[in-house]
Specification:
The protein is of the alpha+beta class and 814 residues long. Helix content is 18%, strand content 37%.
Length: 814
Amino acid sequence: MHVDSFYLKYHSCSFFTNPGFKVQVKHKDNQVELTCQSRCDVPSGHYVWYKNLKAQSGTSSTRLVPFGGTDRYSCALKGHEDFPSPAVYSPKPPSVSVSPSAEIQEGSSVTLTCSSDANPAASYTWFKEDGNQELPPLTNKTRLVLSSIQSSDSGQYFCRAENELGKTSTNISVDVKYSPKPPAVSVSPSAEIQEGSSVTLSCSSDANPAASYTWFKEDEDSPKASGQIFTITDLRAAEHSGSYSCGAQNQLGRSNSTFHLSVGTRSSPMMVNIIRTSLGVLMLIPVFLLSLWTRKKKALRSTTEAPEEIELDSDPEYQNVSHTAAQTEDSEEQEDMGKGIFEHIAPPSLLTEMRAAAMSLTAAASGLVVFLLSVSVVQGQDDWGVTYTSTEICAVNGSTVKISCTYTYPSPWGGRDTIVERKLWFTKWKDGKPVDLKTVSEHGGRLENLCETNTCTLRIRNLTGSDSAKYWFRFETNQPGGKMFGSPGVTLSVTGFKVQVKHKDNQVELTCQSRCRVPSGPYVWYKNLISQSGTSSTRLVPFGETDRYSCALKGHEDFPSPAVYPPKAPSVSVSPSAEIQEGSSVTLSCSSDANPAANYTWYKEDGNQELPPLTNKTQLVLSSIQSSDSGQYFCRAENELGGNRSEVISVDVKYSPKPPSVSVSPSAEIQEGSSVTLTCSSDANPAASYTWFKEDGDSPKASGQIFTITDLRAEHSGSYSCGAQNQLGRSNSTFHLSVGTRSSPMMVNIIRTTLGVLMLIPVFLLSLWTRKKKALRSTTEAPEEIELDSDPEYENDSHTAAQTEDSEEQGDMV
């Protein structure tokens, strides 16, 4: 048998050292440069390029293709197309997994694994979504290990697979379960808490699953209350003051927080009135003293003005002495008065860290050439071989495929003729031996092995997806070690037709296609399983219809494509399905049967025609639902063929009563003998029931939203509280009711007469003081008619004496 020199050289190089043709890939900006090359010495010549197994124009050893495409490229030397290079292609969407797959608890070790089919091999990068556009990478390995996972590690992670031809990514969710964190306790009201009032204690703790709460008081074994909110009404200092603790627990653990509650005592109304009266009297005393001091000062000026008419010799020394003495006395009086005034004025009195751990990256190498020959064969002979007609075959469901090869062997060998004793095709090994496909029951008689001379063909009829595999041919001879199979084998991909959908304005373009090269048309189209006219590979249909479309190749109608159709009415559900309580986590889920897969959007009805979307995911998660989240929700499913809206789903959030508001009618001053209506209202679901209490009273005064008191008396004055309660909790509101007394006519007259007498007393005192002042003037004016010699010494003495007498008189008056 004649074999040319190139074949022998290439065959020896490729099968014994595995250097065959390969495509070198180099990324340049938005393009990729492909170079067809081999480590073997091959004749220079023209090259053939393949794109998705289809030969392309051009014979250069290099080729530019766009970055990010999904096509597969391979090459071969012109004239030797049976020996193409392995195809190169960008990564397929990665497969991601989490281990362990069960519930993830805080502190455990979690591994996220990413893998993707790609050539050249992909590099991997893990990210965590945090709302930022530029995310820092967590690791550049196939596995992301969170060796001691924390609650902050919960979230959406995605792995990006990338090589020189393109990149793609896939998301995975991580939900870390953890015991409650130390609770935070808030007290309302935050001001000083008085006896008779009420207080609301709120406890919150970060936990997954959500925590339940229990309240305890120091030195008491039994719990005081359960639930996130604990309300204490009609507070008493001796009973309610002390240390309290809030315990938050779930199935993973418990955490506590302790705080101290102080209840202040409240003074009685009578004591308050006595204090107010005393302060009023004390504040009037300085005013009365100021008035007396002003009058005394005027009298002093009258006494000292008379000597101004007497001519005295100017003596600066004595004048200065008398002026200083007067200033000193005035200052002392003002200081004493200031002390009297001011002595009665009294002043009033909440990380985490992300960890990247070491990972390992493993790659599987395939396509190694295996020869089960003796050492002498490997060293001295190159006539053993298997050559496949094609190394990659793509076929559609239901069709028939032929996989062919030729094999060669030396004869004679080792001094005797070579005889082929066994020929078989196989796809897998068992116990170190190849499994003959003819013995595999799954093929059910659909398989034939046709051999003639040195050519063998495997024919498989009515192909199905399970026939996709790599097939090898093996022959065994009578020579010692004369058993071999050819590499790289033949990769068979069995695929069906599919309908590609593209939305154009108000129409949809459908294209019947397959990844395999199939004979050109005609095609058959089906609408709701009924064949339609026309044999084109494309078809235009209206957008928004509810029909189902599929296609097949003429003559292979038994293997149609899967049907494409718009979303059916979405199914919606709420979890938990039981009663929804405020503060819990609620998930609304939406799903719809559609092909292509539907996209989902959640909305809440609020009376507006244009509703803002809440989320574009299949699930709407309300992590800590509030009363305001109650309402009607719906989701919309949409694909390229149309859209559909779900029925509304009602979310009814149950919650304990909010602090009640109390209104009083009439709102004006309330007098004895009249009536008053008190109304209490509180936002609650279910609706609240109401109870009325009066301070210092153990039994309720009334029940119901409205409380009416008739024939009011002074004993009705005081603090009242309205308590609103339902099965989820209780809330209180306290207010003060004042009832004014109506005085009798006799009492009014007595009060008026007393006030009149008290007002006359100052007038009488003023009259007496005025008369005494006139008498004093009469006494001091008589000496003006006597002429005295001017003697500064005696004049000064008389003036000082007069001042002394006036001071004594003023002192007596005071």
